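Archive maintenance. Older records in this collection stored only the sequence; we are now back-filling the structure field for every entry so that each record is complete. The fields below show one back-filled record exactly as it appears after the update. Entries are processed alphabetically, and Coenzyme A biosynthesis bifunctional protein CoaBC is next in the queue.

ARCHIVE ENTRY
Title: Coenzyme A biosynthesis bifunctional protein CoaBC
Organism field: Streptomyces benahoarensis
Length field: 414
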Amino acid sequence: MDKQERVTTPKVVLGVSGGIAAYKACELLRRLTESGHDVRVVPTAASLHFVGEATWSALSGNPATTEVWESVHEVPHVRIGQEADLVVVAPATADMLAKAAHGIADDLLTNTLLTARCPVVFAPAMHTEMWENPATRENVATLRRRGALVIEPAVGRLTGVDTGKGRFPDPVEIFELCRRVLARGPRALTADLAGRHVVVTAGGTREPLDPVRYLGNRSSGRQGYALAATAAARGARVTLVAGNTELPDPAGVDVVRVGTAVQLREAALAAAEDADAVVMAAAVADFRPAAYATGKIKKKDGQEPEPVTLVRNPDILAELSADRPKPGQIVVGFAAETDDVLANGRAKLARKGCDLLVVNEVGEHKTFGSAENEAVILATDGSETPVPHGPKEALADMVWDLVAGRFAGAPDGS
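Back-filled structure field:
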């Protein structure tokens, strides 16, 4: 590795605290190293009961130690944090969150947290009772208020037979979140959506015709999931109302699964009650069959099938825009168009009453199912923000840039 490579390689500190989920951090470490990051693992003494020091050193290619007294001439308790581009603590136990919130520095990891001037991400893992304890909740609030990104834990199987919220998020999704934080560079330090609750809808709805058939669309949910993941990486509390998609849950995001347009409406309206912003990225079916056949519709020899009568689905975007339960709430819509894209988009923006409208051209080989997108974001003030062809995360970040700008421009800062 030459000098230039050493300068440009992102330096990541992976802190590992003493929870049984420590073994899952090995997968996170592998993802980070294989994607070109220079990773230094800083475990706590308790975590070594689960994964040994030799494992961390071998997987990272760097020494791993818990002590501030080793290699003293390098002043590791200061240098490691000073030189990092990102610090991620995974898993972060209740004890570690408490120490970080109160500035306790009794080992190398907690010293590193105090000296870091880069973005810091905590991926909690603990039993539900510990996560919901008022002391832990206050510590999390303190860390978030100071600019740290504390991911919401997942819901699922915990130690033993217990199940609930507190499960270590999927390491692949933690890696993706870390990648987004690093991509934002110095801007990630601001956590401009911290303290905000945002709702994102994603995926396509399916309207049942009979027990085996439905009316649907080609939406993969990728754009909505990118919006949810980037909002989480910018510090927001995110509720993702997900239609039919096979994508994994983004780390730190509360996912509500729905199937039909009516179900999506109910979930979106409920989540929007205390939301600061709602982004309607889901591909919601405009129509549904007027009648549902309880048995499979059969072919009949010599007979044409009965016509399928359609009725309109509720206009969720217009409803949310017209009746906003929280003052200052920002509503963003999406317009998937096949022709006269901008003209149709401007008409839809006026008709729906939302604040921003993301307009893109769709088709069999455009947008749907792709990892990339391009669009123009229209605003009620007449402005147009073109987003060139690129990753859907880039479009998502531009949407949140415009939303965050509106938050900052609000008279009361709300």
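Update note: The chain has two domains: 3-189, 192-409. The mean pLDDT is 90.
Entry marked complete.
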